[in-house]
Amino acid sequence: MARPKQTTSPNRRQQILEQAAGLFKTNGFNATTMRQLAEQTGMEAASLYNHISSKEELLREICFSVANDFNAHLLQLEADDSCASRKMEAIIRFHIHMLLTRYNDVYVSNRDWKHLKEPWLTNFLNQRKQYENRLAAIIQHGIDTGKFKAVHPHVAVLTMLSAVRSIEYWQRSKKAISSKQIADDLVMMLLKGLEQ
Amino acid sequence: MARPKQTTSPNRRQQILEQAAGLFKTNGFNATTMRQLAEQTGMEAASLYNHISSKEELLREICFSVANDFNAHLLQLEADDSCASRKMEAIIRFHIHMLLTRYNDVYVSNRDWKHLKEPWLTNFLNQRKQYENRLAAIIQHGIDTGKFKAVHPHVAVLTMLSAVRSIEYWQRSKKAISSKQIADDLVMMLLKGLEQ
């Protein structure tokens, strides 16, 4: 069952991944079965195994694909020469954008990473740690250049990362607030409090 | 099994509640068994039933006791005549205080409320909604009196409530940062961004 499935079309695979993320989000990874996934995608369970070898494989692909998007954005940002404030604003807006456009994937990646198997679990956690350290370095640079107040950089990073998760509530909420207003308010609250 | 257990000493009951919160937090409510709880408290499962009738009863008591603490603090604050900034600072500090002093209870109440049975589930969700509305009213008052910028009050509330949850990371983190520094940094970041 564990042989690589090279012949699956990218579209079909993408469709299975999207259905899997929805099921993981709704039921949790542990409670989701391959049978449910087959039903959801309108396939026989046996033919689902022609496309993927296990639900762990799907979880891994979701988590590492989300990590790739965050990493690519941060790499690009680190390479440009804008100030720490603009960089942090871009990061806050990108996190909100990710939650709005890849909600199920980000939700699953935030909660179900603990079900990754080794070596993926350690690798994924190291990448998250590095991501937080790189954000802390931007904040430290902002402090050093007199842009930001002398907060503890890691406290600031985790406050921001927690705060942008409030977007999840809006996804579930019935209130009609535009995503632009939410993003603008979050940037104002989180960034203006940090700036000198 | 469902008769009220009036004869249990408050201390023994408190001890069972604390062990239950620890197990719910570590294993999740669904995966926790009465047998595990009996082992943890050093009792026979049968004699545990002399003290409590079900694990749902324990979850309910944890969730509603946490709600009582938050509500009592907010009631007291609403009655005094300090400005919106001071009230919001007191609320942020109280949330941090609760996470530091009743970590397991708050953690379980934030995540496992969905396993409450009716009529408790609806009642609990209504109380949370009311709590958020009352915080939003304080922020709206701050906007009306020119203290705060014109953010959407509910966006500000959920941003703050999400941000204070970053305290959970520090509980798990190896980094030695004092709770006072975390609280001061959070108040500065969250409140200064809101103030005019």
From TrEMBL, chains A, B:
GO terms for molecular function: DNA-binding transcription factor activity; transcription cis-regulatory region binding. Residues 10-70 form the HTH tetR-type domain. Keywords: DNA-binding, Transcription, Transcription regulation. The keyword Transcription regulation applies. It comes from the Bacteria. Residues 33-52 bind DNA. The keyword Transcription regulation applies. PROSITE patterns: HTH_TETR_2. This is TetR family transcriptional regulator.
